[in-house]
Amino acid sequence: MQALVLFLCFAALLGHSSCQSLASGPEEGSPDPDSTGALVEEEDPFFKVPVNKLAAAVSNFGYDLYRVRSSMSPTTNVLLSPLSVATALSALSLGESTRESPVHSPGSSSLGDVTCPRRLGKRAPLRIKSSFVAPLEKSYGTRPRVLTGNPRLDLQEINNWVQAQMKGKLARSTKELPDEISILLLGVAYFKGQWVTKFDPRKTSLEDFHLDEERTVRVPMMSDPKAILRYGLDSDLSCKIAQLPLTGSMSIIFFLPLKVTQNLTLIEESLTSEFIHDIDRELKTVQAVLTLPKLKLSYEGEVTKSLQEMKLQSLFDSPDFSKITGKPIKLTQVEHRAGFEWNEDGAGATPSPGLQPAHLTFLLDYHLNQPFIFVLRDTDTGALLFIGKILDPRGT
């Protein structure tokens, strides 16, 4: 079966990646009265900046994708790099004659500081049009690469590519090439960040993590009795929210339900770029007794069905990819590989002098010892880089 295989990789190795190059053309407009004379709610100035507006759109795609994946996996961990998937789809849309993506429109660049090359492979005798190759190379720094048509050799080529780009951080990602493939889209991402303030490894110990009201497992828990973090309590969602800074202009926001028996769905349904931005503005800097599990998770699998549920069915049914090749082709499978890790590593032993905690009359505790949700985002643009639902930190 003739096939196109599009490899795209968003690399956040060692946490040294940010989204400074999320860009689009200038935006116009300010709040105007609607037809009834009522004033339209003024847009937050943050989202009037073109790069932030684009980051919000891509992030909201990511939150939607996460909700679909989470609903499909109600009893297991979920890990996604939505930016990786969005970048791959954006590159593919260059081949659609009827669609214009703002991500690679004139004057814009790719989604983030992508540190790995991208390659497009095809099984002969498909011929890829130069009119597709040129903008792909301009926007994504890649040129097509011809695969052999031999499933064993092509599989080896794909896995070698993933290993090279991820520097061995991810296991070989593709076990076999599916039959009857027209276009296989593969997004790969790995993240290992450093906290702004490192944890003392001597304070890491085995502690209880409550899977639910009755089941408990012992996992390595990092601890800081005088952690400086940003904190808030959301009474509507019945959860405690904390934010920890990472090096490289990134931060992680944790959503911890007040009760271990609480369903995470209410929190998940509230996640949007605008909601997270509002939270970021409202959290207060405090000192707390902090514990959180060491984490090393991976995900590999299809997100095809998830994307089909997100009104992208046309890509799979009847796309016009005539910009790619003269032969009729369509997107048949989207695969995602993600790895995520945090441990005690950090840039400094003490908090930054600029972090001044609020004065509290009591000592705050924040223990991530039960199921929680985390959001990893770029602090400058608000772009969603990774999102996870942790029901069991052992990764099972």
TrEMBL record:
GO CC terms in record: extracellular space
Coiled-coil annotated residue ranges, if any: none
SUPFAM superfamilies in UniProt: Serpins (SSF56574)
InterPro entries the UniProt entry points to: PEDF_serpin_dom, Serpin_CS, Serpin_dom, Serpin_fam, Serpin_sf, Serpin_sf_1, Serpin_sf_2
Entry keywords, A to Z: Signal
UniProt-listed Gene3D superfamilies: Alpha-1-antitrypsin, domain 1 (2.30.39.10), Antithrombin, subunit I, domain 2 (3.30.497.10)
Start and end residues of each Serpin domain: 63-393
UniProt record similarity statement: Belongs to the serpin family.
The protein's name in its UniProt record: Serpin family F member 1
Native source organism of the sequence: Cercocebus atys (Sooty mangabey)
